[in-house]
Amino acid sequence: MTTVKLVDAQGFRRTINRLAHEIVEKNKGAENLALVGIRTRGDYLARRLAAQIQEIESFAVPVGTLDITLYRDDLRGKIDQPLLQSTNILFDLTGKIIVLVDDVLFTGRTIRSALNALMDIGRPDSIQLLVLIDRGHRELPIKADFVGKNVPTSLLQEVKVRMTECDDEDAVALYSAESREEKK
Amino acid sequence: MNLKSRHLLGLEGMPREDITLILDTARSFREILDRPIKKVPPLQGKTVANLFFESSTRTRISFELAERRLSADVVSFSNVGSSVSKGETLKDTARNIEAMKIDTVVLRHSSAGAAEFLSRVVKSSVINAGDGAHEHPTQALLDMFTLREKHGTLDGIHVGIVGDISHSRVARSNIHGLKVMGAKVSVCGPATLIPRDVEQMGVMVYHRLEDLVPVVDALNVLRVQLERQKSGLFPSLREYHRYFGVTREKLASAKKPITIMHPGPINRDVELSADLADSEYSVILEQVTNGVAIRMAVLYLLSTSH
Q1: Set of chain B residues whose Cβ sits within 8 Å of the Cβ of A68
Q2: How far is A67 from chain B, CA to nearest CA, in Å?
């Protein structure tokens, strides 16, 4: 197992900063925006982005949390279920531009689930996708509007985002197992 | 996070972690019930059969709603007009249901142990929706959920159960569940309606409501089953109301605001005064809403865990 650090705490902060600027640039301000983070780290990212947007635009963008467990397509096959947590979106999605936030974009299945979950809650004007890391290997036709960093990976590798809200540091690391057998 | 069993037959012997998991999961489902679109997809393609061999409106509708909100396909039937009245046994009914490839069976039956029996003869998951005077686990879970939402915890709170303890599956399930979760439980009712060995379940017995009221945080008021009066277990409804009916006057000795629960349907001014049932102390309608969330949690956990 080898580990490569892709982003350190400094880089993490700068990336969030840039992404916040990109969001307000693309949407010409923050008035009609709302951020929705996918549990767990997408939620923390959304909160940090909202704080940054507040600095830039002096406008408090509403932030919500989405739990997609009920919408997963692998719910039946899983041996150990994740604890179902609450979706917590306290504003009306209808008419809003939603920026959906997740840490790593991989197969696209999580995002598919999240889109379905959002549509069951309301009817936003549009949904944009922001991810901190895009590691490729899409299995569905999904593309991010805002990307922190593109990281070409092999399927044997694993990308881990760490954030101080739940880990000991802000960092992104790439783990490479020597072989598929070892990973299992 | 999975449940230990693939059936929900009763709360007796259920570990604390499992009850906590159900209550925590129900909280997430509770939020869905406040949305404009109250439907989520996790049971898509699963089929649930509701077998109600004993009449029930509230529990059946609550289960059906929970199943539909999880996107399950639902078949419901009660014994009236079905082949049960033609003499088919429970086992044959169940086998036939199973031959139709049903994933989960919800069973209400007048015989204690019916759900346990069914779980041994069919491959589907079985949920006990009340079996005789034995258990009614989802009712006790929704009572505990409601109490936990109201008081923040079940640990250390004192719950009084008032009424016909002997014949009540709601009381039995509540006692088992509440004890495991660390609550104190007392029962109160006419001596003829309190089981002789009830103390062995770890509860205290009160024969006067006035003595119980000062020590409890919540009262779970059981429905008086009118047929019990005919069998002579208490003299009259008026007398029952006088001694065991929960009224504002009897709550006067309370040390703090007491949460009033009732599994429904209420006999107003018999076991509970109409005025209290509609008062700020009553959480009776919250219980009904929470019941759907609890049943969603149980259905979800049973069908995705195994």
Answers
A1: none
A2: 9
- Tracing tokens 């079996």 back to the chain, one arrives at B131
Residue A3 and residue B110: Cα distance in Å, rounded? 62
B37 CB neighbours in chain A (<8 A) are 120-121
pLDDT tens column, A39-88: 999 999 999 999 999 999 999 999 999 999 888 877 765 556 667 777 88
Say if the Cβ atoms of A70 and B42 lie within 8 Å.
yes
- Residues B8-27 have a mean pLDDT of 96
For position A177, what pLDDT does the model report? Answer: 75
CATH (one of 3.40.50.1110, 2.60.40.1120, 3.40.50.720, 3.40.50.2020) for A11-70+85-153: 3.40.50.2020
* CA–CA gap between residue A102 and residue A91 (Å, rounded): 19
Helix/strand/coil percentages in chain A, nearest 5:
30, 30, 40
B185/B155 Cα distance (integer angstroms): 11
Q: pTM of the entire structure?
A: 0.87
Interface test with B, best of A39, A65, A66, A70 (most B CBs within 10 A): A70
Of A67, A76, A121, nearest to B37 by CB-CB distance is A121
Does B40 sit within 8 Å of A121, measured CB to CB? no
Superfamily of domain B137-287: Aspartate/ornithine carbamoyltransferase (3.40.50.1370)
